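Forwarding these from the shared drive since the link keeps breaking.
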Amino acid sequence: MKLFFLLPRVPYPTEKGDKLRAFNQLKQLSQKHEVILCALNDSVLHEDAEKVLSTYAKHVYIIDISRVSIYLHLVKTLFSDKPLQVGYFYNKRINGIIRSLIDKHKPDHIFCQLIRVAEYVKGIPIPKTLDYQDVFSKNVERRLATAPFYMKPFLRMEYRRLLRYEHDVFGMFDNKVIISIPDRDLIPHPDREKIVVARNGVDTTFFMPMNREKQYDLVFTGNMGYPPNINAAEFLAHKILPLILSRKPGIRILIAGASPNLRVSVLKSENIEVSGWVPDMRECYAMAKIFIAPMQIGTGLQNKLLEAMAMQIPCITSPLANQALQAKENEEILIADTAEAYAHHIIFLLDNPEKATQIGCAGYNYIISNFSWETETDKIEKLLNTK
């Protein structure tokens, strides 16, 4: 089958969750299909991106979006009924390019990642699949509680528009995919149960237990320009850490990940290191005794948890993050819903290394048994063959 793979971002390097998911879906689907990859690009392109992606796609098209174009279309979108998420990535010039590529290659199926690119294939009479990935409307709604006052009107507007768009886009596609059952159940459409749940996997030949000296007590990783990660890092530094210092004054915390926002960078202290981008995230996991993901907002499945658990690092996270993960509380993972509960779990694991090892091993076994890119992408493969 000839598959047109349309993405809002270039899926290399894989420092963001949507890029990681797209890269691995591309890798798996290319084994059985001829893939035409078309990706929008709003940043500096990695020098190896086209070379790496050409390993899996027969044709690679990267379409740049200029900052001027983005700002102009965001302003235009303010006076329309479309979400800003869609307006950011859409313009007529790119629409013409994408339509011409589809006419040129005449694909049998179009696969779109995220609602951000749905407008580009609207009305095209070719079978189409949309990967919602997660629920943007719910993500924006959760951000409202902690957003500065001047952002709240825009977020409320975006929330209402996303609700409507996530409903309307449902009918534009023959098949729909999403990352978890909790996310599927939040899609604002009466036929949401028809959406196929295809979770993320983890490369357990890459993320695997490593023997390293433990330089940190805690590690938190992710793209540190992403609002839910910024919020979680501040919660860790301002709410959790002060509760631990009386018992563990020398505690060492590593916050690692690309593009740290200023709000994350200023958290650096004698107890907290903010690394920024690292060449190999496995080293960050392996050098820590505990992985913590105190997610207060956001949606979807946290890849950081899959990776840490695959490396046998005991993990502590929120009920929100575990909704998609579905690991067994107090057996495969520890769950906390308050700063006090996080502090209790952290101190307990640091004081009881045997229990920490036990949870790390149970979490590892859970990931090995349940999160495979091959198995999850096979669900998409079956959908492609039904239309």
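-- next protein --
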Amino acid sequence: MLSIVLLSVFGIINLFLGFLRSNRGLLPYALLVLALVFGVNLLDWNHASSVPGLLDSSYVAPMLTVDNFSVAFSGIVLLTTLLLLPFSRSYVTAHEPNLAEYYSLLLFALVGALMMVGYNHLLMLFVGIEILSVSLYCLAGSDKRNVRSNEAALKYFLQGAFATGILLFGIALVYGATGTFELARIAPAITNPANADLRPLLYVGVLMMVIGIGFKVSAAPFHFWTPDVYEGTPTFFTAFMSTVVKTAGFAAFLKLLVVALPAASAVWLPTITAMCVLTLLLGNVGATVQTSAKRMLAYSSVSHAGYLLLGLIAGRGQLAGPAAQSIFFYSLAYSIATVAAFGVLKLVADQRQREDYAGLAGLGRTNPLLAFVLTVALLSLAGIPLTGGFFGKFFIFTAVAAQAPIGLVVFAVLMSMVGIYYYLRPVIAMYLRPAEPGATAPIAVDGFQSATLALLAGLTVLLGVLPGLLSAVL
């Protein structure tokens, strides 16, 4: 995949740009790189590879695959990062000395995300997860003078290390039971009568892999790190974690279950169903009691992992179908709305030094654009009609209703209603509560950031009005 090569090369080049006296050129460079890689990724649509010979060698072909599935989800993570970058301008104006390292780590994290989306080999999945995770461990603790940031990095690293060990042990057990790491060869090996005696080994390995990936996507009961890590991590990087990691993680999850483990669904299906119910319950209930907007969005991220788990339940047996399409649309709508929400929150927190609901009070009067964009984003996350989030949930519920008990869908709908409550709390604060003393001045927003916010709100509404634009992606 040429996109991986370009991100790796440009990430290394970016490190050397850090020696320049001024860091003002780093943001345009990063934007240009991501726009280029996004375009190169689109060239792979309906093609085996945009560069003949790059992926068809005997060494690379079993490891990575380029198909419309990988191109579509790679497009989401690249577009999300591209739309997120304008909100890092505060690092430029503050002359952040480590800005080049931050951007390089983001590019390297995208390398891991793209490997997770396009992997065809379990070891390549592991390598992709580790490249992504190690980059995020560093970014979580990037604010070295902030105790919360240091705590977030330590918690993320320690718990992530345990989850990685469990995942790798699960991969080893699956290999021991099937004799292969390649996804396409695992499925027939499971049904081979000669391997019947190794089924217990396989099932334990599958469960350990589900646990390991469940940690990465913040699925309960492996979500306990999420609120503290999201709250302590600088807001810009929190937005990256809550969108790119989740999209890449669920794309990898879906490919693993559908391509490699359909014959083991008797083991992973009840497990994921239980995780789904628990994730929806704990994520939504946990978000209702928060007073910090950032921490609420952390629990919101957990709840959205529950809705995406519904897509996995519906995705049995087909990688290109209604379930995969619903996961793609939901990931796109969720990512756009989340970037908008965190973008507004970062602008407010940078100038008002607050991340709670009171810090948003009066924003409807002082900054109508910020208030409108945040409102649209929160309504989309809540699943209100005329937003992308509504059709994201609609497609998920429709797909799972044909595969799972209707009670599971009813429960998910009830949890969506709970979500409306906590998503409306910031809206009420922005429009119905006066700004606190000393916080009546408008938030300074430059033209580039305003245009990005308007684009994010427009895309959210567009997905809610014309959802059929992406109906033929997968």
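The chain has one domain: 2-470. The chain is about 75% helix and 0% strand.

- D.
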